[in-house]
Amino acid sequence: SITEETVELLEPYLDMEDYNLETAKKVCGNVAGLCSWTQAMAYFYSINKEVLPLKANLALQEGRLAAAQMELNSAQIQLDEKQMELDEVQAMYDAAMKEKQALLDDAETCRRKMNNATALIEGLGGEKLRWTASSKNFQNQIVNLVGNVLLATGFLSYSGPFNQEYRNLLLQLWKKEMDNSKIPYSKNLNLTGMLVDNATVGEWNLQGLPNDDLSIQNGIIVTKASRYPLLIDPQGQGKIWIKNKEKNNGLQVKIVNLQVF
């Protein structure tokens, strides 16, 4: 309730040198307390005069702050909702991108397979003629199989004791008889290629068998004929080959002296 007018009326007294607590105590203790109280109230008014606008401004700012805080809370709620929507959309986007990458990978795999298939088809297209010829050759082999087997078995059974010249003569006579009996056979039949493969021949050569046709035919007769073969071997090449071939099979060698009369 202190007003500015009251403070102005007190100022002449407050400015006096003896208007203080020490001097008042000398006169009267109660007066000293009243003197100190009036000084304090005047000082309080001057301070409160500056504080009141600040309090009013504080209250105003606190009201603004509360309103701003409410707006902030509302905005934060909206932000959280939008963030949830954004997370959902981001998850959908990531899933779509993953699916897109998977589709791209599948498309690339399909494209690579298609290119390989195209290259294979183009490559196989050039094999058509060879396959057609091979198919025709297989048909001829089926038709000529009986005659070819007959020549092969005759060769194994009867041509062992003869040299190359007589073996060829036997084959020519057999083919003539087969022509008369109308038994089909391959005109260009290679008995060596029919009865043994190149890998086996190569292995025989490493074991000491010569590479000429007669020696290879002898090797075929030795390994495939059902009878015990007789080798006339003046140079000892056949003996070396048999020893090398059968050394792991427990071959026993018997030496027999023959006298010719």
From TrEMBL:
Report the coiled-coil segments: 58-113
Per its UniProt record, what InterPro entries does this chain match? AAA_9, DHC, Dynein_HC_stalk, P-loop_NTPase
Domain Dynein heavy chain coiled coil stalk: where? 2-174
> Which terms in the GO cellular component ontology are assigned?
axonemal dynein complex
Q: Which domain of life is it from?
A: Eukaryota
The record's keywords, sorted A to Z, are: Coiled coil
User: Residue ranges of the Dynein heavy chain ATP-binding dynein motor region domain?
Assistant: 203-253
Identify the Pfam families for this entry. AAA_9 (PF12781), MT (PF12777)
State any single GO MF term. Answer: dynein intermediate chain binding
UniProt-listed GO biological process terms: microtubule-based movement
Is the keyword Protein transport assigned to this protein?
no
Record protein name field: DYH5 protein
